[in-house]
Design goal:
With about 80 residues, the protein is mainly alpha-helical. The protein is about 55% helix and about 10% strand.
């Protein structure tokens, strides 16, 4: 199943809303008990993922071609 631009934008908005909710009260303490709602670092990673996905799908919509991703590496013989 391919993800549509609309689905990607909705997911991005959901994660942005989650970040906003976490920022107001990520954790709190009552007496000796602590509650942490979510891992903000993980939410930030998901936001980055969906931002990249939205950008990729917008490029595909305009050009009709997928982005090419290349990585540079150095082969090593151990």
């Amino acid at each position: 199943m391919a993800i549509t631009l609309q689905q990607a934008e909705e997911s991005l908005q959901m994660w942005l809303d989650a970040e906003r909710a976490i920022a107001t009260a990520q954790s709190y303490t009552i007496g000796s008990r602590n509650l942490t709602r979510a891992n903000l670092a993980e939410v930030t990673k998901r936001i980055k993922y969906w931002e990249d996905k939205v950008a990729e799908l917008k490029v595909v919509g305009v050009t009709g071609k997928r982005l090419r991703r290349t990585k540079q590496f150095i082969p090593r013989d151990y």
